[in-house]
Amino acid sequence: MGAWLEPKGRLLWDTSDKFGEHHLRFLNKRVFKATKRHENSQTLRFGIYPFFSGRAQQNPAEQIHMGSGTPFQYLARLELLNDWCGPMEEVSALTRLEGFIRVNGEFSIITSQPRFVRDRHLEEPEISAWLSGLGFRCVTAGTWYDPAQNLALFDVKPSNVILSQGRFIPIDLIPIQPSGVMKYVLAAAIS
Questions:
Q1: Which phi and psi angles does 156 have, rounded to 5°?
Q2: Is 42 left (phi over 0), alpha (psi -120 to 50) or beta?
Q3: pTM for the model
Q4: pLDDT tens across 23-64, in order?
Q5: 115: which residues sit within 8 A by CB, 6+ positions away?
Q6: Are 186 and 152 in contact (CB under 8 A)?
Q7: Rounded to whole angstroms, how far apart are CA atoms 176 and 151?
Q8: Do the Cβ atoms of 50 and 65 come closer than 8 Å?
Q9: Using CA atoms, how far apart are residues 52 and 97, in angstroms rounded to an integer?
Q10: What letter does residue 44 receive in the DSSP assignment?
Q11: Beta strand pairing status for 151-154 and 174-176?
């Protein structure tokens, strides 16, 4: 397969990169991402995903932890991120599902995003002001919740939000619409 793909400039992954849960490939005006096993994990990684442990002494937000996501959770979060971002001027959706392949003998989900030109590196206070302006409230470092939309954002940090042409673009946040105890805990943490 590699003999057929390489001369055509198709997707061959540099598996030595250190980009968290993805192998990256830049082609034309898009960034292609292939899910991968985390370097310190024995399990396949489809990003991280929040779960409720039910164990906390004081702060209810301490009951929320990040663990390995499933393929369904990974795809669901990308769809929710697209819904939250809405259509952008230059593209119909932030993230596009490109397909599935095997990378290093393991199942991998391929997605792509436009290759946005970064104006400059964002600092956490700028991201906080942006999210506060959209109605989100900080639950704890890296976690925000908007009860009006019932939308929680996880893994909020400067490497997952870029500023491009004066716009904040959440390239790798983890959105969920919590229910049950998770929703209760998030609401309690911001009250």
A1: -80, 115
A2: alpha
A3: 0.83
A4: 777 788 888 988 876 666 655 577 778 877 766 566 777 778
A5: 26, 28, 29, 30, 31
A6: yes
A7: 6
A8: yes
A9: 28
A10: -
A11: antiparallel
